[in-house]
Amino acid sequence: MADLVTTRRRFLTSTGALMAVGLGGLTEPARAQGVAPTPSMRGGANNYRPGAPIVKRIGGGGFWMTGTVRRAGDGVPLPGQRIQIWAHTTEGHERDARSHGATLTDENGEFRLEMPQIVPAFGQAHGHLAYDSEEFESVFLRPVMRRSSDTSLSADFVLRPA
Amino acid sequence: MRGIGAGPVVKALVWVLVTAAMIAPVIAAANSPLLAWRDPIYIAAGFAGILGLSLMLLQPLLAGGDLPGLSGMRGRRVHRIVGGLLLVAVIFHVAGLWVTSPPDVVDALLFVSPTPFSAWGVIAMWAVIASGVFAALRRRMRVPPRVWRRFHTALAVVIVMGTVVHAVQIEGTIETVTKLGLCALVIAATIRTVVKLQVLAKRPRRQPDA
């Protein structure tokens, strides 16, 4: 009986190790093929208002939404891309026009927009970001804050040509 | 079924505990900082949810005849009224959220919401509606009492579990400690009543005042 237990344990250990190595190996080729496009998240487009103006800052600020925009495949940073941002904040509900704003990525494909503090709404402290222009396929993201006391949130886009 | 054959002190204590457990979350939520950043309708929707959870504590206690002064037929009548209030609270909760953010509520109702707790809330909502509909129709449909009791208990368990999972996972105006306390009591009361009424027994025990 003891032999059987030992055998099973050894079997599980070796199988587990094999799977860990095997799965690690499986992800390698995918990376080699290039950077995969970011899929839209569930509920990402909720309360979206197309055409939010490009602003220096949404409302009074105090909270930072940051992120990067890259091209699928080669992962090249994309400058000058318009990212729209909205959330339930200390200054308004998601659906309110004043809670919406847009910004452009810099030469490194990075964006950074100051906005009011995001507060929990519909059970979670979360923000919304959209890429919704001509050149690439639209992507809507809905990142969740780890703690509602956080004063920044980030989201990265990898876009596929339209 | 007689309630606990207890003295006036214990009876008073039961009421104090139940009332405190029901009111504490409401008072705590009334002091939530999140209220400052919400429209009145959104605030009302949140409180409808909290009140619904509070009412849920009364239901198993009334069904089990555990509330002093409200056992037997009286308890059943109050159970029916509280059930109606619970249904109204759920409708207010969902309607208020709908007005606040229609796409989020549509996602929840279609079970495609990004938040895992939404689905539990929607499941509990349908169980509350089903309970109300069958409670209203069971005489006309001539449902045998034992079948009704098992079916209603099954729905009640779904309502309690769905609501507790829903409530525990959300970060909202409801305060954490009072929320968890109330949820624990609702679960305890539900288990107590299901065991006490022997819903799962082949033959339900005869009840002196049924």
UniProtKB/TrEMBL annotation, chain A:
Domain of life: Bacteria
Any one GO molecular function term: iron ion binding
Protein name per UniProt: Twin-arginine translocation pathway signal
Species name: Primorskyibacter sedentarius
Automatic annotation (TrEMBL), chain B:
Keywords assigned by UniProt, alphabetized: Membrane, Transmembrane, Transmembrane helix
One of the Pfam families matching this protein, by short name: Ferric_reduct
Source organism superkingdom: Bacteria
Subcellular location: Membrane
GO CC list: membrane
Membrane-crossing segments per the record: 12-35, 41-58, 78-99, 119-137, 149-170, 176-195
Keyword check for Membrane: yes
Membrane topology: Multi-pass membrane protein
Occurrences of domain Ferric oxidoreductase (ranges): 48-162
The protein's name: Ferric reductase like protein
The organism of origin for this protein: Primorskyibacter sedentarius
